[in-house]
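If your schedule permits, I should be very grateful for your opinion on a structural question. Kindly check, if you would, that the fold set down in the tokens agrees with what the sequence suggests. Thank you for your consideration; the sequence and its tokens are set out here:
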Amino acid sequence: MNVPSFTSRFIESLPGDQLVANEPRQVRGALWSKAMPTPVSSPTLLAHSREVAEQLGLTEAQLKDPAFLSILAGNAPAPGVTPFAANYGGHQFGNWAGQLGDGRAIGLGELNGLELQLKGAGPTPYSRRGDGRAVLRSSIREFLCSEAMHHLGVPTTRALSLVLTGDRVMRDMFYDGHPAFEPGAIVCRVAPSFLRFGNFELPTSREDVALLRQLGAFTLQHYFPTFGPPSKEAFSQLLTEVAVRTARLMAHWQAVGFVHGVMNTDNMSILGLTIDYGPYGWVDNFDPSWTPNTTDAEQRRYRYGNQPAIGLWNIERLGIALLPLLEDDEALVEQALLAYQKTFELEGARRYTAKLGVTPRDETVELTYALFSFLSQQETDMTIFFRALGEVVTGAKPLAFPEVLLPAFYSPPTEATLRTGTDWLQLWWQRTREEDAAPSVIAQRMNAVNPKYVLRNYLAQEVIDSAQAGDASGVTQLLEVLRHPFDEQPGQERFAQKRPDWARSKPGCSALSCSS
């Protein structure tokens, strides 16, 4: 097979580590290190995204060819470029963590202008005490969520392939002293760039302004060329643009009920993409205080309702990192923070009022907050509730609580809940009649932004359990459903059901760790 040749603007344009030993160390004066993948014993392609393959210019035959599978498994180098791991730092759970880097991700280079990266292909100089591997459960979750988010319209990194390695990896899933061997796997991640806030934070923390300036110039040239050559003004525009993109991303997460779980600055994309799928989850019952991350169970820093505030905090960290390029003009950081706040306010209002089928106005924003209060009153499935509103809007004014909304509750609603809900529904229904569209058109618009199918944790766990038992067919089946999240899919209704009782406390469904 003719394997396409890879390139890499990142390692061709930016300084790399002079050492080649693949051992943990502090790397200074460099933005990347060479990192050869560690071969695996028996790679098997479990699943792939045909849309991502097409974007990369790959045919189905190429993707399934043993020669290309060897590249995706880390058993053979990609032709044309040296595999590498990026060097960056980051704030983790609000504290500066120093150098972090790609500890279990190895960059292969670019095809068709998109970077490919293997997650779980072995240790790098940034693995610290880790083995650089990933297990099947977390790899399935990353593969599925990358694609699910894309089809929801949320900016995200993508996933080309999911490879079972044939090797076992030891993990202590909940860090409770009970390690066990699990099947190993590798995901090939794809993005225009994997640059993170932490890439800029590390040089600044070390007062390496020359390296920071090189990275800034590279970023402007390749990803924000309209801002012109490096200058104070160009870097100010860069910071503000990243702030705006991040605010839009936060509004989108909130609107679909996605909780990232670990919004450290090393997990924030400079392009405003969702990046690094670890202990994420979808809000089952509408609970602003919910976090899927067991590591964050006490502090709840990254809970659903706090994500917009954390996005702002992270932008401030990026702004501080860019201060040497902004000639220490802190007013430009404040400008970016204000742009974030204004964008989130407008984008959040636009997205939530669209979910309700109405246009943003002061009173409709108040209507949205009243709905949040109602949804928090009793365990209510956010996804099912919003989707069912599309049926309510086409009917008569609800004099009693509509039966079509009852499946959204996890237990029979109380009389108080029904009264509060009916009062809200009457106000909302009346507001929809002030729109310049027929109820049937409003319903179509609502269904176009209120998904019927999302990657609920219990669905992912069912697929994981089957795959670990030897049947990975569920991965592809679930992926096909998630490729059309807004469509009615006859015969697939089971994928649109709320969380079953058995999943309320099952590991992998209600709580996850960063272990992978």
